[in-house]
Structures are given as structure tokens and as C-alpha cells.
Amino acid sequence: MYFKDIIGQEEIKERLIESARNEVVPHAQLFCETGGGGAFPLALAYARYLNCTNRGETDACGHCPSCLKFNLFAHPDLHFVFPIVAKKEKKKEVCDDYLAEWRSFLNDRVYFNLDNWLEYLDAGNSQPLIYSKESDEIARKLSFRIYEADYRILLIWLPEKFHSTCANKLLKIIEEPPQHTVILLISEQPDLILGTIQSRSQRINVRPIAEEVMQAAMIERYGLSPDDALHVAHLSGGNYLKAMEAISLGEEKEYFLKLFKSMMRNSWARNVKGMKATADELASLGRERQKNFLAYCQHLIRENFVYRFQAPELNYMNAGEVGFSVKFSPFVNERNIVELMEELAKAELHITQNVNAKMVFFDLSLQLTVLIKK
Questions:
Q1: CB-facing half-sphere around the CA of 158: CA atoms within 13 A
Q2: β-strand partners of 181
Q3: Mean pLDDT, residues 40-66 taken together
Q4: At what angle do helices 251-269 and 287-307 cross, to 10 degrees?
Q5: What is the pTM of this model?
Q6: Cα 261 to chain center, whole Å?
Q7: Class of the 250-371 domain?
């Protein structure tokens, strides 16, 4: 990944390039984003630029021995840490056990999220973590001498997934890493990271991609018309992954919309048999997908409430969602919006706490039968 691959974020790129050229490189940096803004590719492009032996004014050269190894994500002084699903029976308990899959995953994409990675791993219901054993692996790697680069890079994706034991063991390393070691942490939920880790890192806030920048990227990269590109940019909210969903309509989003329609129609009709069938189908999904569905439901409830104001610039729905909202939006109003959101948020919390999913979704449907008739 190069700086040129990243949409927008010019101010951050300039700051990172200046840091490398002036050799004023903080030993621990925390890249924070809400998703789809480019925090991971920024960190990786920065790591490449730091160790490029023939740097350009705005990017790494792409031809030196260091860049060629970065192309394969196989530089001996580049170390990755990322959430995994441990499989003791296969002796896969630390990140290096998944390194081949990780490199293949990175090779196919610049922007991604945790759901993409879990789907790639076929993780099912398993919860991803950076396990406690990883701290010993990190300490071991950093105890070796630097092989050939100016900087040894430790790139930690989603430190909010640290097991508490692992996080506490790494405090000393993050505060005082070995000489010429740079630790780059990339987070989408920085509030879940230990405060002591946050305080030991220089924070870089990666903002959502500006609408006009996203529009230009959609025109240049995908040949969209200016009007279509503007619509996609508006729907994305500065998230490149959501922009891709808007272009393709996203199989996952289409499936979630179908389930949302089914849930609401069953609740309106008091169709208990249909409620149970939908609850069973939702229970068969992995826990991460269940949480994503409930987050999607909250998004649609909000959008349907706003839809009643007849202000298109305030809405973020695709054509299929708008088509359903024409008839559904009158049932989301001042009398029930707060309770609807509360019930969906409560269901999401219960799924996170491993409450039986069939019970959660069936109970949610029963609650909706009362609320949507208000």
C-alpha cells in the first residue's frame, strides 16, 4: 500500500511524510477512525515510506529492496498483530500462525474491516481476539536486532481486541520500545483501549473522507456520472466501504433489508409463526453478523424517522430502502422512535453478552408488535 492508494487524507499524509523526512518519528502512534477512512492503509504506507531507501517527495519509490518486500508484506522488520480466532487443535494460537492468510487477505484489498477479515477466515460464531500469548511473541520479536531497515515496525490492527492480560503486558513495551522501533496502532473503537496505552501513544484522528473527495474518487475509479457519484458519496458518510456497498447494493445489506422487512411485517400482523421463523433464521447467523443486523436496523429506524421530514439531504438510504420507507416511515414517529431504538440497542447488548439469540430476536419481535402500532 502506498500513499497514492489512499483517498483524500492529504493533511495526514503530509504530516507523516514530513515526520519521516525530518526523522522525528514518535515511537508509538495511534491511528483512530470510525471505519472506512483509510487508517490502516495510511499506517502501512507510512511504514513503507519510513524504510524506503529511495523516497520520493510524496511516496515511497516502489523499486528499492525494502519496497519490494513490502509489496509481499514480508519485510523482516515489519511485524503484524491482528485479531484472530485461536484453534488449539490446529495449533493456531498467535498471529504468525495466520500470517499466510493475512498476507493473502491484504493483497486483495486496500480498505477493509473486521467483518471482511472474519468472513475471509470463515470464523463463524467465534469472537476474534488478540490473545494473551501474543504479548510473549511481541516481546520475543522486539528482542531481536533490526535486520536491515532504519526502523523496525510493529503494526497492531484493532488494539481494542487485546485480551486484558496481553494489553497490560505490553504497557512497558509501548512506553519504552527498543531503539528504532515504531509501534503503529490502528483502532476503530479507541475508547475501548486501555487509557494507559492511549496516553503512551501519539493520537492521529483519521476523519471520514470529505464528500467532494469521495465523489471525485468514484468518478475517477469507477466511471460514475457526477450525479451518481455524488449520491454514492452522500450515502457513504465518508466511509469507503459503505461507498462500495452503495455501488454494488451489497449482498449483505440486501439480505439485512429482507430480514428487516420480514421482522416488521410479522410484528405488524402479529404473525407469531413468522416471528419465530425469522428469529430462527437470525439465530443461525454468526454473532458478529447478528450485531451488524441490529446496528443496520437502528440505522433504518433513524432513516425512516427522518424520511418523514421530506429532506433528502438528511437521508442516507439506497433505492431499495427508500422504496420500503415510503410505506413504512409513517409507523416510525415521535411516539415510538425512542423506544424502538432502545429495544434494538438492548437486543444488540444481549447478543454481545451471549444471550440465546432465538430468545433475543423473538422477544424483540414481540416488543415491536406494540411499538409500531403507537
A1: 17
A2: 152
A3: 93
A4: 70
A5: 0.73
A6: 26
A7: mainly alpha
